[in-house]
Design goal:
- Two copies of one chain form a homodimer.
- By secondary structure, the first copy, chain A, is of the alpha/beta class.
- Chain A has twelve helices and seven strands.
- The first copy, chain A, has a seven-stranded mixed beta sheet with strand order 3-4-2-5-1-6-7, with helices on both faces.
- In chain A, α1 packs across α12 and α5 packs parallel to α6.
- Chain A is globular and about 50 Å long.
- The first copy, chain A, starts with a strand and ends with a helix.
- The model of chain A has no long low-confidence stretch (mean pLDDT about 95).
- The complex binds adenosine-5'-triphosphate (2 copies) and magnesium ion (2 copies).
- One magnesium ion binds next to α1 of chain B.
């Protein structure tokens, strides 16, 4: 199953969720590929030192029929593989401005590779541009991390419009696997009200488990690690393990 | 003086800083224009209800010689004016992909209008694309909000590369007015270490005043208000007032 993690609002936990969901799936014995489709390379930097990542997914967009297999690397975690991003991915939007099949590049590249993995998780940039659209076109499901705060809620409709448009134009099987509430601080009325609003909007799509603020989640990238390797007993690790189990359940349906 | 608030990392407080700095300058009697150059429209939504913002800065990019004056609106705060964004600004990147003067659109539009204001503050999206470049090309100074955490620090060099390239190609007077540490939680070693790293990188450019986590700052957009109107006695208001005073000092030099 190919899952995109997306939300055009910045800093809502897309990368934290992509990295730790992919690691969680690998931990559960699923052969998992994490694709970093964000030129910021935050997910890439968790698994690879800068000098290790000359290869990237850029040729998927710039060359004809580029074999994605060539840039898929093992990570230190068993079952977990990653396809790195690069800052140069940022120019893809204007480079492919004219091309009719621009939204389909990643889907085509994944078609030869998807059967080698149980799960593919795609991290995306904070935008609804060509990279995010490519991820959505290529995917079976999307997970939407949302922080319970005013501006994050305002952006949801724009995301859903893009989702709907991709579904209708390119990918009728695309559906929302779920919505994860991230960076939840239960002590504030603001956050609790916002969570209620998210539940009103999305009903059962909202994962039971919300991710609370946990310093370990913020620290782990500094140690080039996912949360399970870095701090397995933290609430962050427990929460992302529950999220992983819930994803596995929902993936069955 | 025209100031861009920029950082391609998502959710580091660009909009919170743009809105509250602009409001602070207005409070100090400076005639201030806030330009929302982010298709997410977070800054716009603080000052205008959705039905109030049919006008936007989009024609600056899509039409020849569009008078920016036509879309500048008063806000409820004396001295504070705003030019709204729109989701449709997102397509500007690919629309202008071929045009030689694409980076200069905002600068040209501002040239007729800048003498009507003491300060112009430009909020930008989490990307180093055409909208952010337009803002940098049009500006005298840039303020960089940075959260003291690993991924935010990793992105600084990419930002500086873009800054340098804009400066050399289009705008030799562009300089960094300062770096603001945002969402600082002094209780964590991670944040304190990261602040030291930021100070090592930027020296005196770092504002003395760091913005601590303050729930009032997160709440105020829900009440369509800047922090000074919403919660003038909060630490968030005090901090952004100090930031405003420091900006005024630095603008003199
Ligand atoms: N539950 C959490 N508790 C504490 N910190 C968190 C949590 N989730 C994420 N963070 C931190 O918050 C910041 C933003 O998270 P992250 O980078 O995952 O968001 P993003 O949506 O991928 O951002 P962008 O839009 O820039 O891609 C990071 O520094 C991250 O380490
Ligand atoms: N000092 C603070 N304390 C608490 N919350 C804050 C603080 N500064 C910003 N926030 C909140 O954090 C979130 C991210 O801030 P903001 O939207 O200003 O960042 P941004 O860099 O403009 O994001 P984007 O990259 O999406 O444009 C918002 O919900 C905002 O209200
Ligand atoms: Mg990210
Ligand atoms: Mg913003």
């Amino acid at each position: 199953m190919i899952i995109t993690v997306a939300n055009q609002k910045g800093g809502v936990g897309k990368t934290t969720t992509s990295v730790n969901l992919a690691a969680g799936l690998a931990l559960k014995g699923k052969r998992t590929l994490l694709i970093d489709a964000d030129p910021q390379c935050n997910a890439t930097s968790v698994f690879f030192a800068p000098e290790e990542t000359e290869d990237s997914i850029l040729p998927v967009f710039t060359e004809k029929n580029f074999p994605l297999k060539n840039v898929i690397k093992e990570t230190e975690r068993e079952n977990l593989f990653a396809a790195p991003s690069t800052i140069r991915l940022a120019k893809v939007e204007r480079m492919l401005a004219g091309e009719i099949d621009a939204p389909l590049k990643l889907k085509k590249a994944l078609s030869d590779v998807r059967n080698l993995f149980d799960f593919v998780v795609i991290d995306t940039p904070p935008s609804l541009g060509l990279l995010t659209v490519n991820a959505l076109v290529a995917s079976d499901r999307v997970i939407i991390p949302i922080t319970p705060s005013p501006w994050a809620l305002e952006g949801v409709q724009d995301f859903l419009d893009t989702f709907k448009s991709v579904k209708e134009t390119f990918n009728e099987n695309l559906s929302i696997l779920g919505v994860i509430v991230t960076m939840f601080d239960p002590r504030t009325v603001l956050a609790r009200d916002a969570v209620n609003e998210i539940k009103a909007m999305f009903g059962d799509l909202v994962f039971k488990e919300a991710i609370h603020r946990n310093i370990r989640l913020e620290e782990s990238p500094a140690y080039q690690s996912d949360i399970f390797a870095f701090s397995p007993n933290s609430t962050g690790a427990e929460s992302y393990l529950k999220i992983t189990e819930e994803v596995l359940k929902r993936a069955e349906r």
